Amino acid sequence: MDRQPHGRLDELLRDPYPHYERARHTGGLTHVAELDAWMVARDTDVREVLRRPEDFSSANALRPDVLPSPAALAVLGRGFGGRPVVVTADGALHQRLRTPIVRGLSPARVTAVLPYAAERAAALVDSFAADGSVEFMSAYAHRLPGEVIGRIVGIDPADVPAVVHGGHRAEELLFRPLKEAEQVAAAEDVVAMQQLLDRYAQRRHAEPREDLCSELVASVLPPGAAELTLEERHELVAHLQNLLLAGHLTTTALLGTTVLHLLRHPDQWALLCAEPERIPAAVEEAARYDSALQGFRRVTTRPVTLAGTELPAGAALFVAFGGANRDPERHPRPDAFDITRAPGRHLAFGLGAHGCPGSKLAREQLRITLEELTRRLPGLRLAEDDPVVMRPTMIHRSPYRLRLTW
C-alpha cells in the first residue's frame, strides 16, 4: 500500500526545487504531506542536522515510499540482508560499519583504480562513437560506475551486470508503485543478487583476496572463527548490497544529470571543450546544481528546536541537500548553472559522520567521463525528438533516458 498518492508525490519528486524555495522562504520548518516529513531546505539548517547525529538519527534514512505487497515480501524473505547498514546506523554501530568502507575507498585505493576506470570509459565511448547518436544512460552511465565499484569490491566483471540490475530493481521495488506481479519479479531479481553476494562473502572467507569484499568479511568475522554464521552472512550481504548500490546508482545519476545540464547550456559545453582545465570546477557545479542525492530522512531522538520549530521525539525530517545547494545565502545566483563560478562548499555528498566516503571516486569518474567526451565528441547535443524526463526519486535523481547526437 502506498503511503501517499503517487500523483502528488511524483510531481514533487520530478522537480523538487520549487518546494525547496518555498520551504526556505517560510518561517521555521515546513511539513510536507507528500513526504510525510518536515522539510529542512536551508543550508544552515541542513548543516546543523548533519552535525548532530545524536539528536537526528539516521534510522529512517532509507524509509521506502512504497510498501511491497505480501507476495513480494514473501519472496524477499528467501534472500539475505535486512540488517542495519552504514546509511541507517548511528553511534558505535555506524562507526563499525563505516570503518572498512572508508579504508576500502581511501584516496590511495581510488587512485589505484583510476587507470581501469579510464580504460573502461574509453572502451564504452568506443562502442558508440561512430554511430552519431546514443542513449547515454544505458550505453554509458549505467555501466561505468558498476564496473568500477565492482573492481574495488572484487566482483568478477561477468557478475557486475547482475549486481547492477539487482540494485536498480531494489530501488524500483521500494520507491516506485508497481503492480503485484512486477513487484514479485523485482523481488526475485533482488534475491538473486543477494544470493550472488552471499556466495562472494563465503568465497572471500575461504580464500581472502586484496579487495574490499575480503576486508568486509574480516571486519565482521570474530578472530579465529572457522566459518561464517547465518547471521554474519546476512550482515555481510546487507553491507555489500548497500555499498554496491551507493557505489553505482548515485554515480550513474550524477553522470546523467551532469551531461544533461552541460548540453542544456551549449555555451557552457563549448567553454568546457575549449578549456578542459575547467572540468574539476564543472564537476563541482554539476554536483551542486542538481544533486544526485537530493537528501536523506532523519528522525529526532528527543525533543529539539530547529529553525525555531519545536519538534517532539520521533519527528520525521527530510534533510534536503538539494535545497541547501540552491540556497542563495550560501550560493549566489543559485539557480544558474555556471561552471565558471568559484566552487563553494556544497552538500551534494553530505557532511559530517555520514559524509559520503565514495565522493572522491564519484568525482573522479565524472572527471574522466568529461575528459573523454569533450575530447572525442565536442559536437554533442541533446536529441530534439526525445524529451528528457526525470526519474521521480530523491535518492538517485537522473534522466530516465538521455538521447544524444553529434
Q: Looking across the biggest beta sheet, what order are the strands in? A: 1-2-8-5-3
Helix content bin:
40-55%
CATH class: Mainly Alpha
For the largest beta-sheet, the strand count, sense and barrel status come to: 5 strands, mixed
The coarse silhouette is globular
- At the fourth level of CATH, the homologous superfamily is Cytochrome P450
Structural class: alpha+beta
Number of helices: 16
Mean residue pLDDT: 93
Helix-strand topology string: HHEEHEHHHEHHHHHHHHEEEEHHEE
* Integer tally of domains: 1
What CATH architecture would you give?
Orthogonal Bundle
Please report the total strand number as a whole number.
10
List the uncertain runs: 1-5
What Rg do the Cα atoms give? 21 Å
Give the percentage of residues in beta strands: 5-15%
Distance between the termini: 45 Å
CATH topology: Cytochrome p450
Keywords: Heme, Iron, Metal-binding, Monooxygenase, Oxidoreductase
Organism: Streptomyces davaonensis (strain DSM 101723 / JCM 4913 / KCC S-0913 / 768)
InterPro entries: Cyt_P450 (IPR001128), Cyt_P450_B (IPR002397), Cyt_P450_CS (IPR017972), Cyt_P450_sf (IPR036396)
Protein name: Cytochrome P450
